[in-house]
Write a structure and sequence with these properties.
With about 1000 residues, the protein is α+β, with helices and mostly antiparallel strands. It is built from 19 helices and 58 strands. Strands 35-34-39-38-37-36 form a six-stranded mixed sheet, with no helix packed on it. It is globular, with a radius of gyration of 32 Å.
């Protein structure tokens, strides 16, 4: 009740101040000035680009507001009315400046040279100045799409919450969170600089005083009831910042309010727009005679050169744009449960289990049948490939994101950011009464914070270079497991503990004051050995010797009851040779129950005095890097490449436990005959109900039979292709044979039938001894990532293998090398567009987009090739996707979409506003082409223009499918979503 009253009171504060001023209280206007002067100045600064000029315009805005405040019909809308005044003053200033500009053509060369020299000197002085930093931040923000730039500016400069931004922009809170998350992913390490710079802007101390002095000389206009009501039901702290991010015009400007006329007599909607004039001119021929690697001009570039200074246009010119439908919202689909994995697991002090994924934070109460999503990822947080680490102490939860540490005191319902964190791959967080300890992987060290996560200091000791594998805390003592041993930290001091082992410390587990240690191989050393043939040979010889000779286990387990002062070796024994082929052991503990997970699994109920061996089970082989936790002596959770599983019998048996979790691990999707198909960790899964439920496909033992194989052979990174009414799947086989399996979907849609006669991709190795086999095993990653693009046309198959495009026709004895090879460096592993060729085939016509931005064309099935990049009318750096719709090809790039009907004449596709929407993925429904980018889904209309038909997407799109009147997307971090497609669309 009290909270509701307080919110209403804050909402009406402006109206009360306005009414008090109109009643003669000058102090009320002073309060309004202090409340909004920073916001108005930010608007003016964004508009005119000069800090001090913005001060003058801020004063003018308040003076005009002082004079005309009596004309404001609805005092609740003071903020929007004030910002309209400020915007109009900025527009007037620009017009005045343009009328005073001197033509460069009439300026002497001497004056130009002198001006250039002065400009050079100024730039040198500016390099270390705050102003230079602020300009740099502005340039970073300009590179963001409009919708993301809006949210970032409102959030950091306006200090607004996502809920406040949502209310102001008129879109959902989830959409605001998505925009903020995408912006953070783009800005990455610059985010902290942006936050600090925007938050450190200080106005002159005498600005308020100067405004009030001048208002004393003015006579305000008496109140009148003839002026309009501004329909802005928003707080004053929000409205200003919309102007900060409206830059170049585009079709998305229609999302903002329409222009407000101060002299209008009726209520209207407010939309303030800055739109630059775009000249639609024919590009010069020499501009096209360059390779396709150019600087892009932004999110949506015009069809021709743009004027250097934006010219303000009447917003009425864009009022007639067709607005995308916002009635529908993207709906989350669960995705295959096999892909529902987590990056963090803990058991809280109150008994609930918490799990983190790229979707958010889940909770499992004792005896609950399914996980509950407590909260999505906080909008201020950034998620990288390592996911989210979670910890808890004394009832407080902690989350470690790539850009900072967050905390919750209400069991995960709400989260607050403590501050940024050191760069690096987070391994874990240990918490004591006095400090937070953050462990980073890859030799990046340990960092300590003594002020609640606001600042971090590196612990400059030998731990930093030891390769950290695990970090835990017992009360106020922290333990760190490294490749060089176990360390104990207390405050800022460290001590290496004496344990009778030469192996790396791979895992740590705590139960009360008991500490358990699991050892194994130093993987950093093994990785460095694998980089050279000599090192690989030495490592293979070492592994063979260990497997063939009884040299003891390759891992150990130790137990300490006195904080590491003394240790007991409690390693279980076994006659199985699997004890000698492990890289490290995962130890879990609850009370006196100890569980060891490796190639073999063991369980002890007496703190390691006796053990029960469960034997080898490939499904429980868990690398130590995967999160696992014991809820009690019988209930254990562990994550793996096959998703999250649970054991209720102390680790003897395991079952999937993903109910309630949303799969964020999907990477591809294809629609075929009203059914969705996607790859999972060991095969292909299908959904016939729009993604609500999924079933794994079986693999037939032969092409002429639908009999299932006796053994469930996993499919490695399967690729999809459709041709002539059939769905094909390609998957590499064993490293030994360099063979590619190709399957065709059966008529009933439930079985993958192998295509017979597919030759090996390379010559089969002549030797079959164990050393040769292991050498190939260590190159497995090279082979797996070597399989790239896959496409089919009739009975001809194309595949990218080891960065070469190969072709095989049924009946041929070997693959034909088309001669197209990509030698460019994979510099950006976070961008999947850089992982493989972009390939499209239609009969004998083949298009290949290489990673370096070169487009090749072949009209004879890849026998001869032509570089057509110079003929393309867009400047771009790389390709997103290439598809055919009939005989017409569509090429999506990072600067827009190109199309050609004959391969000779090309044009760039624009929207109804003449700009080039950025499309990440495309799809064809019969003859209609659709594309999806960050701003939403587009459709080519009957004028061959992009027309937006959905709201913006929740996250960057990795796959896009049209199936059974539905639009389906797979996103980078948030899983799968869908929205209905009206039949008329």
């Amino acid at each position: 009740m009290l909270n509701s009253f307080w919110r209403d009171l804050m909402k009406n504060e402006d109206a009360q101040l306005v009414n008090r001023f109109l009643s003669g209280d000058e102090g009320a206007f002073t309060t309004l000035v202090k409340k909004y002067q920073k916001s108005v100045h930010a608007l003016a600064w964004r508009k005119v680009g000069d800090f001090h000029t913005a001060e003058e315009l801020t004063q003018d805005a308040f003076l005009k507001a002082y004079q005309k405040l009596g004309t404001l019909k609805n005092p609740n809308q003071f903020a929007g009315w004030l910002y309209v005044i400020a915007d109009r003053l900025c527009i007037a200033w620009h017009r005045k400046q343009k009328s005073q500009m001197e033509s460069l053509e009439t300026t002497s060369e001497e004056e130009i040279d002198m001006s250039s020299y002065r400009h050079y000197e100024d730039e040198q002085r500016e390099e270390a100045s705050t102003e230079h930093r602020q300009r740099y931040i502005r340039s970073l923000l300009e590179k963001l799409p409009e919708s993301e730039r809006t949210v970032v500016t409102l959030h950091y400069l306006g200090e607004m919450t996502t809920k406040e931004i949502s209310k102001f922009l008129g879109v959902s809170v989830n959409t605001i969170k998505s925009r903020l998350q995408r912006a953070r992913n783009r800005l990455k390490e610059q985010e902290t600089m942006i936050q600090e710079t925007l938050g450190s802007v200080q106005l002159p101390a005498d600005l308020t005083e100067n405004i009030l002095k001048k208002t004393a000389e003015l006579q305000p206009i008496s109140p009148t009831s003839s002026k309009p009501l501004l329909p802005w039901a928003i707080s004053a702290a929000t409205a200003i910042f919309i102007f900060l991010i409206i830059g170049t015009g585009s079709q998305y400007l229609s999302r903002f309010q329409k222009p407000y006329n101060l002299n209008a007599q009726s209520e209207i909607t407010v939309e303030i727009i800055d739109a630059p004039i775009v000249l639609d001119t024919q590009a010069k021929p020499d501009l096209r005679n360059q390779s396709g690697r150019f600087d892009t001009t932004g999110k949506s570039s015009g069809t021709g050169p743009q004027v250097s200074e934006p010219v303000m246009l009447a917003a009425a010119q864009v009022e007639k744009e067709t607005r995308p439908s916002t009635e529908q919202q993207w709906i989350q689909a669960s995705g295959p449960q096999e892909e529902a994995s987590v990056s963090g697991l803990i058991v809280s002090s109150w008994g609930d289990v918490y799990a983190t994924s790229k979707i958010g934070i889940y909770r499992l109460a004792p005896d609950a049948p399914a996980w509950t999503l407590v909260n999505s990822v906080p909008p201020e947080a950034s998620v990288d490939r390592d996911g989210i680490r979670i910890a808890e102490r004394n009832g407080t939860l902690y989350l470690v994101f790539s850009n900072g540490v967050f905390t919750s005191k209400d069991r995960g319902e709400t989260w607050r950011k403590l501050g940024g964190r050191p760069k690096g791959r987070a391994l874990g967080l240990a918490i004591t009464d006095d400090a937070l300890y953050l462990g980073l992987r890859a030799g990046e060290g340990i960092f300590r914070s003594t002020n609640g996560g606001k600042e971090w200091s590196p612990l400059n000791n030998e731990i930093a270079d030891s390769g950290i594998n695990a970090i835990v805390a017992i009360e106020n003592t922290v333990f760190v497991g490294t490749n060089k041993g176990l360390y104990r930290l207390h405050s800022d001091t460290s001590k290496k503990l004496s344990i009778d082992t030469t192996k790396a410390i791979r895992s740590l587990a705590v139960s009360g004051n008991d500490l358990y240690v699991g050892t194994g191989s130093d993987l950093s050393l093994a990785k460095s050995q694998m980089e050279t043939p000599e090192g690989r040979k030495a490592k293979i010889d070492e592994l063979i010797a260990e497997m063939m000779n009884d040299t003891g286990p390759r891992w150990e387990v130790f137990h300490s009851t006195d904080l590491g002062e003394s240790w007991t070796n409690i390693t279980p024994t076994s006659k199985s040779h699997m004890m000698r082929v492990s890289s490290g052991v995962k130890v879990l503990v609850a009370g006196n129950a100890v569980l060891v997970l490796d190639m073999l699994s063991f369980r002890s109920t007496d703190a390691g005095k006796t053990w029960t061996e469960f034997g080898f089970n490939s499904s429980i082989v868990t690398p130590t890097i995967f999160p696992s936790v014991a809820m009690d002596e019988n209930t254990i959770f562990r994550d793996s490449i096959s998703g999250l599983t649970r054991s209720t019998d102390g680790g003897e048996s395991w079952h999937p436990f993903t109910d309630g979790l949303v799969s964020a691990g999907m990477s591809n999707l294809v629609g075929f005959k009203d059914t969705l198909y996607t790859r999972i960790s060991q095969g292909v899964s299908k959904s016939s109900d729009g993604g609500a439920s999924w079933n794994k496909l079986t693999v037939s033992s032969g092409e002429l039979t639908l009999k299932q194989e006796e053994t469930d052979t996993p499919l490695i990174s399967p690729k999809f292709a459709t041709a002539e009414g059939a769905l094909y799947v390609a998957s590499p086989d064993s490293v030994l044979e360099y063979k590619l399996h190709i399957f065709r979907l059966s008529a009933n849609g439930n079985v993958l039938v192998p295509i017979q006669g597919v030759p090996a991709l390379e010559e089969v190795p002549s030797t079959r001894d164990i050393k040769d086999w292991m050498n190939k095993m260590f190159q497995f990653e090279r082979f797996m990532f070597g399989l790239g693009a896959f496409s089919v046309s009739s009975d001809t198959f194309y595949v990218e293998h080891m960065r070469q495009l190969l072709r095989w026709k049924r009946g041929e004895s070997k693959w034909f090398n088309t001669g197209l090879t990509d030698t460019s460096k994979r510099s950006d592993f976070s961008d999947d567009s850089m992982w493989s060729f972009k390939l499209a085939v239609s009969e004998e016509t083949v298009y290949v987009g290489k990673r370096d931005g070169i487009l090749f064309q072949s009209f004879d099935s890849g026998v001869t090739w032509k570089d057509v990049t110079a003929n393309l009318p867009l400047r771009f750096e790389r390709f997103k996707e290439i598809i055919f719709a009939g005989s017409t090809v569509y090429v999506a790039t990072d600067a827009g979409v190109l199309t050609s009907e004959d391969g000779k004449h090309w044009r760039a596709i624009t929207d109804t506003a003449g700009t080039h929407p950025l499309i990440d993925r495309m799809a064809v429904d019969t003859t209609t082409v659709y594309g999806v980018g960050d701003e939403g889904v587009y459709r080519l209309n009957n004028r061959d223009e992009w027309e937006q038909i959905t709201p913006e997407v929740p996250d960057r799109v990795k796959a896009f499918v049209i199936n059974n009147y539905g639009l389906y997307i797979v996103t980078e971090h948030r899983g799968m979503f869908h929205v209905s497609l009206n039949k008329e669309q």
